[in-house]
Every structure is written in structure tokens, then in C-alpha cells.
Amino acid sequence: MNESDKYRSFDDVKCLWMKCGAIDYKICDKNFACENCDFDKQMLSGLKIKGDVQEKIESMFGIGQHTVSFTHPCYHFCSGLMVRNFIANNYYLGIEPYIAKFIDKYSLLKYSNSNDNVKKGEPVLNISNGWGEVNVLSPFSFNFVEKLEMNNVFSRDLHWFAIIEAERFEILGNSINKRVYFDKLYETKLSLLNLMKTSEEAGVTMYDGGAIIENWSDILGKSTYKNLLEKLFSGDSI
Fold first, then answer.
1. Element (H, E) at 188
2. Which CATH architecture does the domain made up of 47-238 adopt?
3. DSSP 8-state class, residue 176
4. Closest CA to 14 of 4, 24, 28
5. Which residue of 17, 59, 190, 221 has the fewest C-beta atoms within 10 A of its own C-beta?
6. Cα–Cα distance, 208 to 93 (Å, whole number)
């Protein structure tokens, strides 16, 4: 065991397949370099998932590590939000693109309250649809400078919903690094793949007209979908 591993918690060394509930027990011995893991390759090859759903999942999570910036001007947070600095202490505030793709079409997005001053841990965004609602909490304290039109959040992959002002220490002190970001990204992908093994709805057509089921809440079921969305925005393990 490496000297540094003596001080890591059990949750820190769980295999991501264990975290997503696909297996009962496995400790990661590859330092979470899943692309170099034979066990990961075996697990992926054993999944029997309809091609169109697999493509949908791959399109959501096919994000190369070289394409995501973790230094100025972009910062990421466990809560599923991200910011991009554009001048002084002003930032665009938005939803992580891969999470935005997971949100069902025609979901209603609105600001959680009318206050322009938001403290860390307070609700900032409410997302709702037929599956229920989720409140997104702010990972840092900030002031709204401008609240943008919510209807544009999902058009042309524009995931920014506000311009804010925040102290630099709030951003730096609460943002996550590349390892945490991609662990969560991959864990979410594995969770969806694992759920698809038992889903009878994945990729099927609806009886009332033959339209392909596209919304994740229809594929997973409303309760499971809401639970996953809440975890994506809470920073909890999937």
C-alpha cells in the first residue's frame, strides 16, 4: 500500500463499478485510470444494451480530458454547476453540459427565489417536469448581476443561465479538480449503463404513434430519474 493510501477513506478507493451498484465489492488498484483497467473493459463488454440508447449515453459522456478546462477562466463544482470568468469578479454561471443533456426536454427551469444575494448552500435553481422537481443549491456565495432568459439554457448547448459577481476565494475554495470531475462523470455513465441492463423501456417505441422514447424519465422511470438528477446536482455518489 502506498503511504498516501493509508489516509484515504474506504469511499475514496472504491471501484466506480462498486459505487454505481453494479458489483458488491472491489477496490480500485489502477488509481482510477479506468481506460487502462481490464476489469472495466470486461464489465463494459458484458452489458447488453440497445444500440440507440448506448449511443445516447456515449454522446452525453464522450468528453475527452483535454477538452475540459480546470484552470482560469473555467471552474467546476460538485453541485453540477460551473462558471466562466470574463472580467474581474464577474462570471457566467451555468449547468455542466453533460448534466444539461440529461435533463428532459420541456423541463421548466426557474430561479429558486427573487433574491440577488445568494449564500453557499442556498437554492439557486429549480428544475421541474412531470417527474417532480429538483432544487439546485449554490456551491459558493455570490450576487446576481443579470438573470438570463431560461428558455435559452438548452438551445444550441447554451448552458449559462446567469451573470454573477463572486469573490475569487469563493470560486477557488469550492471548485473541484480534474480527477474528481472525471470520476463523477464516469461513475454517472456507469450508473446509466448498469440501469439500462434491466430497463424494458430503453429505446422502445410508444404505442400511441411509434415515437421513440427520448426522455430519460421515460426510459428510467420517474422516481429513478429524479433520484439520479438529485445526486448529480448534490455532489453525492451516484
1. helix 178-196
2. Beta Barrel (2.40)
3. -
4. 28
5. 59
6. 39
- The pTM assigned to this predicted structure is 0.74
Residue 46 neighbours by CB distance under 10 Å? 9
Q: CA torsion 82→85→89→93, rounded to 10°?
A: -30
Per-residue pLDDT tens over the stretch 143-185: 999 998 887 666 655 689 999 999 999 999 999 998 888 888 8
Each domain of the chain, given as residue ranges in start order, spans: 47-238
What whole-number distance in Å separates Cα of residue 180 and Cα of residue 30?
A: 15
C-alpha–C-alpha distance, residues 109 and 151, integer Å? 8
- Reference 193, options 57, 37, 36; nearest CA is 57
Report the candidate in 40, 36, 16, 35 with the shortest Cα–Cα distance to residue 27.
16
pLDDT for res 83: 96
Closest CA to 188 of 110, 96, 120, 118: 96
| d(C-alpha 182, C-alpha 203), whole Å | 27
